[in-house]
Design a protein that fits this description.
- The radius of gyration is 21 Å and the shape is elongated.
- Helices cover 17% and strands 41% of the residues.
- The termini are far apart.
- Strand 5 and strand 6 (85-90) form a beta hairpin.
- By secondary structure, the protein is of the alpha+beta class.
Length: 135
């Protein structure tokens, strides 16, 4: 009897709930920043590292526009964007351990085309650690 109730509940959910919402929970389509460990830098020496963003489970992720923001860079450092790649570079002027927060927002041609194929989220962020040592 308990099995019958479970099967009935599942069938009811599939029939009366939007299947896309159910699938979105299982297979999320959203932007993601890659996992990365930044190399250790040295104060007053040029530093460069880059990472890429993508949209999980979206074969058309090349068709989206990517917008980045970075918070927490040490003095002398900046970031530059080349499509889906963000580069952290510069000559750090201070030592320390810095928590760098990178935000990415995406927008694309499929967002408002009347099709129900939308992303679960259009934004993501991740915190990375950047260590700058003294000379």
């Amino acid at each position: 009897m308990k099995t019958f109730r479970t099967i009935t509940l599942i069938l009811f959910s599939v029939l009366f709930l939007n299947c896309e919402d159910l699938l979105d929970c299982v297979i999320p389509r959203e932007p993601e920043l890659q996992n990365k460990t930044f190399p250790i830098g040295t104060v007053d020496e040029y530093y460069y590292a880059d990472l890429r963003a993508e949209i999980n489970n979206e074969p058309r992720d090349q068709d989206y526009d990517y917008y980045f923001e970075v918070i927490g860079l040490p003095l002398g450092m900046d970031y530059f964007v080349n499509f889906r790649t963000i580069s952290i570079e510069g000559t750090p002027l201070e030592t320390g351990t810095f928590d760098i927060r990178i935000f990415v927002d995406v927008d694309g041609p499929f967002r408002n085309d009347g099709n129900n194929e939308r992303l679960c989220n259009y934004s993501a962020s991740k915190t990375y650690t950047l260590i700058i040592e003294g000379e």
